[in-house]
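DM from R.C. (forwarded with permission)

"hey, sorry to bug you on a friday — could you get me a structure for this? deadline for the figure draft is monday and I only need the backbone to look sensible"
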Amino acid sequence: MKSVIIVHHHEITLKGDNRRFFERQLMKNVRTALTGLLPSSSVGGGYGRFVIHLEEQSEVDKIVERLTFVFGLANICVGVEVEQNLDVFCDTAKKLLESQSFKTIRVHTTRSDKKFPHGSMAVNAKVGEALCQHFNVRANLKEPDETINIEIADNTAYVYRAKLKGAGGLPSGVSGKVVSLLSAGFDSPVASWKIMKRGASVIFVHFHSMPYTSQHSVDQVRQITEVLTKYQFTSKLYIVPFADLQNEIVLQTPQSLRVILYRRFMVRIAEEIAHREKAEALVTGESVGQVASQTLRNIRNIEVAVTLPILRPLSGTDKEETMALARRIGTHDISKEPYDDCCSFLAPRKPETWSNYKEIQQAETKLNIQQLVEAAISKISIEHFSFPPKSV
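My reply, with the result:
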């Protein structure tokens, strides 16, 4: 028996003629995720699954943890590779269950190698009977305490107990680039993660109002970027000083329109970055009706400031759903810490909730839009992140 981890593909099993493209990218991502833990040659396989051959001193828990961040995987299964033999299946299953406590059992077999003479149902019956007799338990096909999985593949077979749920979605890097407006709050990190899950590579842009606000939001965003980089392996973070531009808006325009004008300039700057990065779209954490700037009218009046599409993965998501996802992906505890929101700096007491586009246009005639955008971009700093860390 050889110790292995079997990882099954998620959505790419439904792809047509370009399936090989998705599989190659997924293979590359799995190998990248395991950098420093296993050599690339340990990862093999192809149609529907990859098989990771473990070494004697392999750190299985760390390997499994890394794999849970890889988009494109349906599940992760720690087991063994054995020869195609019914008696071997029975003996292997007994060994896998020796230290477990259970009263009911199910055997589930898939047989892609049709040369193996016994069908899946026959294998289930044979192995199930052996396990029930050996452990004095009974079969339960609906809600068993334990399940033994057997995969009969080309000239080999795999036996394992549990399936750990993978990240799902599409492999990172197959859908092009997007630029995400990232704050230290709950919403934008989750929105970024959701678009990553669709195979997009996300470039982050954070706006801050220092020195009028503290350094804390920038530090939090760095931590959030580190967490999100686990899902796409490399990240770039643009940090944009925004206070000078905000001061111009405060001095020259109506108070009620400030936040909308802030947002219009943010997406303009993000679009310029997107053009430089050859990105296809912008991403925000907006949810319809959640705050004053996110009414449908205001969303519309902000979006028309740019030509690139703005993706809003959370548009129909409520706060509780977003926070649950934040806990799942690992950004919640960072985002719950107090921080200075850029859009809260010099925010009006009564922000406009249903803005008039002509009034916005009139307000912006008092501003040199291109000059303000270029001035902000000239002060940008860029930071790079990688996972696993290059020092590993």
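R.C.: lifesaver. The first helix runs from residue 19 to 33.
me: no worries. The chain has two domains: 2-165, 177-386.
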